[in-house]
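Student: Send me a single protein entry containing the residue sequence and its fold in token form, directly below this note:

Tutor:
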Amino acid sequence: MQIEIVSDVICPWCFIGKRRLEKALAQRPDIPFEIGWRPFQLNPDMPRDGADRKSYLETKFGGPERAQQIYARISAEGAKEGIPFDFNGIRRTPNTLAAHTVLRWALGAGVQNELKERLFNLYFIEGQDIGDHQVLADAAAAEGMDGALVKSLLDEDRDADVIQQEDMMARQLGVTGVPFFIFERKYGVPGAQEPDVLLQVIDQVAGGTAGDEA
């Protein structure tokens, strides 16, 4: 069964959604799953070198106090899934175009899901700037890719236009928020749904009884 997830690497709910999907998949070991990640930029107008985290929070939420309220809930949900979010450790909000580009290359290398996990951890737990080309190259190398080549291609902006087109396509298809799960390229499920909800959809798709959208 093919499951594609429209997602951004700086979306905490996407990290939570990944964990919940993994729980659901573990309960259906008899079904072969093919997992893929599609790009979506939460901040498509972000400068290429990113933005200071404090300034970003001021613009997006009106200040750190409101952000703290929002992230407190996300942290609580993340803790339930074993994710130790460290939002205070994030110093810079990146432009995610380069990260999505590397993830596209990782698909061809057969390590896309592994790299997605690594980027989530680097950003949300270790506070690293995943807009930095060297950080991305090192992450790719840790998953068996050619880090030097990745860095060189990123510096050339290789395939950046392809990612922008895919991002635009997702919006044209009606995706306005992430994560957004697509089963067998037919059935869409928005949001970081609980494992039971995802299991219900998986069983419906496997049985050929799913509707257009769960």
About this structure: The chain has one domain: 2-207. Residues 123 and 130 are 6 Å apart (CA to CA). Strands lie at 2-7, 34-39, 51-52, 92-93, 180-183, 187-190.
